[in-house]
Design a protein that fits this description.
The complex is a heterodimer of chains A (894) and B (110). In chain A, 53% of the residues lie in helices and 15% in strands. Chain A has 29 helices and 23 strands. In chain A, the strands form three sheets. In chain A, strands 3, 4, 5, 6, 7, 8, 9 and 10 form an eight-stranded mixed beta sheet that branches. In chain A, strands 15-16-21-18-20-19 form a six-stranded mixed β-barrel. Chain A has a four-stranded antiparallel beta sheet with strand order 2-11-1-12. The longest helix of chain A has 41 residues. By secondary structure, chain B is an alpha+beta fold. In chain B, a hairpin with a 5-residue loop joins strand 2 and strand 3. Chain B is globular, with a radius of gyration of 16 Å. Chain B starts with a helix and ends with a helix. Classes of the chains: A alpha+beta (894), B alpha+beta (110). Chains A and B meet through helix 1, helix 2 and helix 4 of A and helix 3, helix 4 and strand 3 of B.
């Protein structure tokens, strides 16, 4: 019950504590003095009177203590007292305190750093209005390939579906656009988003400068654009008068009407401008009923649109998903050809955006938590040992009347102080660690750059520290609550450290550490082996000493002659061995999938008339430059010009699959052809080995190569491939010169080597593997230090026993074996438990493993061997000390 | 008065309040008065007295003040406050109720 009085008492406690205590002291003392005087008056001597008073009444200190206990805020002031006392005792054992803080701090810091990344990428809600109601609609084909929508399907869904307030549409894979700022002639290659006008209100984000475009502007294909914050800062120097200025996108003038805030990252992390979908060059290719001929082209050709929708307030995600399942067959019915085998799902936008990184980040978070647990176990052991050193003092206090509850509270407070200090140390490490993660993290993690130690993370760290305090302090506190002061005092200060209970506790602590270490090590080894497996995959070409350059010409110019001329000149540069070009080296979108109709022999492929293959157009000595070996037939030559029969080079898997047992050279098939009617046959002129054009980890898909002269697709952008003698980078300036001299407005970008590109493709995997490796190495170190500590302690405790044994004639060898056996008893149960746990948990890793299964026995064998080796070393040192104990000194020690 | 104190803590409050009703007193005086008036049935030691005094002061029923007592010594004397007086009246009524009920119970004819 709160009252003014109690508040006054609290205040006086805080600010006038000394006065309050002095007065209490005086009051109680006055009572005793009065009693003593009374006894003197009754005839006793002064001394007798005092003794009498002491016998009759409780001690003044106890009286004062009782008064204090009943006071308001008694709990709080005793808490403060405990804190001060705990602080003093911690300062008196600096070794214990600093080692514990360091160990725990390391664990907490690492966990905080990983958590800040996980938070920024996976947990923090997207910056849009009510982001939990946003879903991404995803079409998948029968073989689980993620597709994109046809535009009429979008219109159908928007009109018919009942789960969504609104659905917006955008292009995701429009590639890079040429953006030129008026007034300058320096173009640059920039990724942009072509979105429907209703995307901005749907997401609830508007430009911080200007306005978004409207649906009228969309219908009119108005040339208006909204810039990204970064683009505005970088190329326009954040000028406030940006609105109304123009820039040229792919040679068309657009007017700037707004600037979006920084965290607007749809459709892509790198989107730098947003324009209406109707202004994009692909807009004209959406299937319409008045263009029947073109409709037999491929789905990939038309299906480019991605959808994002907002759920109606009363509709749940499950209901929307059910509706999408119903719509799948509907869409199939509308376009049986293009939508064959299509099914739809709805995924929360947050999940879809972070999708591929989810598993890897969760694994990292789990691993670092394991590391923290090991650190806690070490700290708990340290606290146990520290506690045992105080057993005598505690026993005395208990027998003087201290309550067990108060002592348990004290231990927990000590643990809390240690953890809070460790937490602060952890934050100090976490800040640069998080920065390092952001800088060295792979580029495919969305929102990574927003990871940092901010308020939410600090709250997390605080909570984590308290949890750690509980974990570590639990054991010593529990032991205390069950200790018997009687026995401790009887033993005269000898701690009962070899008692059965203590042994069991230590054994279980070591077991937990070993088990966790084994689990972490297994995960790390599996990832490492996957990494090595990926690197040893043959990509199908020879990546050494090859330079690749992306060139973007303005549309409408003479591409063919320009690229041919460029390749000619490049070939003449000294140091260049071969040079060629292809329209997209490591493709990123599905728009290159085209159908292949095999026409001969018809009997074999009766059931497989349509096949999806990647169609590529090449020029020059592309295959030779890449180092792709020719297995049969020939490369393209100048005889495959525009009016010659259509030639194609296919890869081995396609040849074997569709023309098994015979040579595919000379066979015919149909697919895309220049006139668009698909009745001109293509002849196979050469067969090459398959290449992994999506990167080493992705299984190869069939490819069809055509000479660039024989088709009519736009070739404004090409990837040049140049094989050199010596270091390819030395020639990059020359290559750039050559291209620019032919067209000064050409954008020459991404000058890199094939090796670098392959390297970059595995950088996410490298990141995970490296981190997990670091964590398991740390875990192994901590666990072995813990094991060493335990064994050392045990040896020291049993010195007497060892001395007796030696005096009775035991050989040092036997003693060594005895200690080792003890150690083995500690480690082996942990090892077994760890192996079982690891086998079970690593199945969760299957998504990110490559070329190895979680049940690979060599991995576990290796991990077990590693642990046993390290454990043996950790046990050997104290065992060695034990064997060298001088029996006389040992016996003398009491 | 160890066992008895635990049983009759509420009673101790009543005893103190009543003692102070007749006039202000310091700690020793209160203990003496209670012992005398109850003819030694209730003997209050400092371990019970002072916690009770401070608790009652926190509740606002009594108020302590330092002053000069006999033999020019500094003593803390307590007086009954207005709220204390009201509380005392309440406690007296309660006590009478209990007393009457107990009496009836114990003297009832079988």
């Amino acid at each position: 019950m709160f009252s003014i009085r109690r508040f006054q008492v609290l205040l006086s406690l805080l600010f006038r504590r000394e006065t309050v205590e002095t007065e209490l002291d005086a009051e109680v003392q006055a009572f005793f003095d009065a009693m003593v005087e009374r006894y003197i008056e009754q005839g006793l001597s002064a001394e007798e009177a005092r003794r009498f008073a002491r016998l009759n009444f409780e001690h003044p200190e106890q009286v004062k203590e009782k008064v204090r206990d009943r006071r308001t805020g008694a709990m709080f002031s005793s808490f403060l007292r405990d804190v001060k006392y705990a602080w003093r005792t911690l300062r008196k054992s600096p070794a214990f305190t600093s080692v514990t803080i360091l160990t725990l701090g390391l664990g907490i810091g690492a966990t905080t750093a990983i958590f800040s990344v996980v938070y920024a990428v996976l947990l923090r809600p997207l910056p849009y209005r009510d982001p939990g109601r946003l879903v991404s609609l995803i079409p998948t084909s029968r073989d689980q390939v993620k597709e994109e929508f046809l535009f009429p399907d979008y219109e159908f869904l928007r009109a018919q579906s009942r789960s969504f307030e609104n659905i917006a549409v955008f292009y995701k894979n429009t590639g890079f656009s040429r953006v030129t700022l008026t007034g300058t002639s320096e173009p640059e290659s920039v990724k942009g988003g072509y979105v429907s006008a209703n995307l901005f209100p749907l997401l609830g984000m508007t430009p911080h400068l200007g306005r978004p475009f409207t649906s009228e502007e969309e219908t009119q294909s108005a040339r208006v654009v909204v810039l990204s914050h970064r683009l505005w800062q970088r190329r326009f120097a954040s000028r406030p008068d940006i609105l109304g200025r123009t820039l040229a996108i792919d040679n068309v003038l657009f007017q700037v009407i707004g600037v979006m805030p920084e965290d607007f990252q749809i459709p892509d992390r790198d989107s730098q401008f947003w324009a209406p979908i109707t202004t994009n060059r692909f807009w004209l290719d959406r299937p319409e009923s008045d263009r029947p001929a073109k409709r037999t082209r491929t789905r990939g050709f038309y299906a480019r649109w991605n959808l994002v929708a907002r759920l109606k307030p009363a509709v749940s995600l499950e209901q929307a998903q059910a509706e999408m399942r119903w719509f799948g067959p509907q869409l199939q019915g509308r376009e049986p050809d293009l939508n064959e085998g299509l099914s739809l799902t709805a995924l929360p936008l947050q999940v879809e955006v972070s999708g591929p990184t989810r598993l890897a980040l969760s694994v990292l978070l789990a691993a670092v938590s394991g590391l923290l647990l090991i650190a806690c176990v070490n700290a708990a052991h340290l606290m146990l040992a520290h506690g045992m050193g105080r057993a005598h003092e505690v026993a005395v206090r208990l027998s003087l009347g201290a309550s067990r509850g108060a002592l348990v509270r004290f231990i927990l407070i000590e643990s809390l102080i240690l953890s809070v200090l460790a937490g602060s140390f952890g934050v100090v490490i976490a800040v640069p660690a998080t920065r390092a993660l952001v800088i060295f993290g792979p580029a495919d993690i969305p929102r990574l750059e927003q990871a940092g130690v901010n308020t939410e993370i600090l709250v997390f760290t605080l909570g984590l520290s308290c949890l750690t305090a509980l974990l570590c302090g639990f054991l010593p506190a529990w032991k205390l609550s069950r200790s018997s002061p009687h026995e401790v005092l009887k033993a005269g200060g000898h701690r009962s450290s070899t008692g059965a209970g203590v042994r069991r506790t230590r054994a279980s602590l070591v077991m937990v550490e070993c088990a966790l270490t084994v689990i972490l090590l297994s995960g790390a080894v599996l990832l490492m082996r996957s990494f090595i497996a990926v690197q040893s995959v043959d990509p199908g070409f020879h990546p050494e000493q090859v330079l690749t350059v992306r060139v973007q010409l303005p549309s409408g110019t003479h591409h063919d002659s320009l690229y041919d001329e460029a390749l000619q000149r490049i070939k003449m540069v000294s140091g260049v061995r071969q040079a060629g070009a292809i329209d997209d080296l490591f493709e990123s979108g599905t728009t290159d999938l085209g159908s292949v109709h095999i026409s001969e022999p018809p009997s074999i492929v009766a059931g497989q008339l349509r096949v999806w293959a990647n169609w590529k157009r090449i020029r020059g000595d592309y295959f030779q430059a890449m180092g792709i070996s020719l297995l049969q037939g020939r490369y393209f030559t100048f005889q495959d010009h525009a009016h010659a029969p259509l030639a194609a080079i296919i890869d081995q898997s396609m040849a074997r699959h569709y023309w098994p047992g015979e040579s595919a050279i000379g066979k015919r098939f149909r697919g895309w052809d220049k006139r668009g009617y698909h009745d001109d046959p293509l002849f196979v002129v050469g067969i090459i080995r398959g290449t992994r054009s999506h990167g080493r980890e992705v299984a190869p898909t069939p490819h069809v190569y055509q000479p660039a002269d024989q088709d009519n697709f736009e070739k404004a952008t090409q990837d040049l491939v140049i094989r050199t003698e010596g270091d390819p980078n030395k020639l990059s300036a020359t290559i750039r010169e050559i291209v620019r001299s032919l067209d000064s407005t050409a954008i020459v970008s991404r000058i890199t080597t094939l090796e670098e590109q392959l390297d970059q493709q595995i950088s996410p995997r490298r990141f995970q593997t490296w981190l997990l490796g670091v964590f398991s190495a740390l875990a192994l170190t901590l666990a072995s230090v813990g094991l060493y500590g335990v064994m050392q302690y045990m040896v020291v405790q049993r010195r007497q026993e060892i001395g007796i044994r030696m005096a009775l004639g035991a050989a040092p060898g036997r003693l060594l074996r005895m200690i080792l056996q003890e150690g083995a008893l500690l480690v082996i149960p942990g090892l077994i438990a760890g192996l079982v746990g690891a086998r079970w948990l690593t199945t969760l890793l299957s998504g990110i493993l490559f070329g190895i299964t979680p049940s690979d026995p060599w991995t576990y064998g290796g991990v077990a061997a590693l642990l046993m080796t390290v454990a043996t070393a950790a046990v050997m040192v104290p065992a060695w000390h034990a064997a060298k104990v001088d029996p006389l000194t040992a016996l003398r020690q009491d | 008065m160890s066992r008895q104190t635990e049983l009759l803590q509420g009673t101790l409050d009543l005893l103190i309040l009543r003692t102070l009703e007749l006039g202000p007193l310091h700690g020793v005086g209160i203990a003496d008065r209670i012992e005398q008036v109850t003819r030694g049935v209730f003997v209050v030691g400092p371990g019970s007295l002072f916690p009770a005094l401070h608790r009652l002061a926190e509740k606002g029923w009594i108020e302590g003040a330092w002053g000069e007592g006999e033999q020019k010594r500094r003593v803390k004397s307590y007086i009954l406050t207005a709220t204390g007086r009201a509380q005392l009246a309440q406690e007296k009524r309660n006590w009478n109720k209990i007393l009457t009920a107990m009496n009836r119970m114990l003297t009832e004819e079988a």
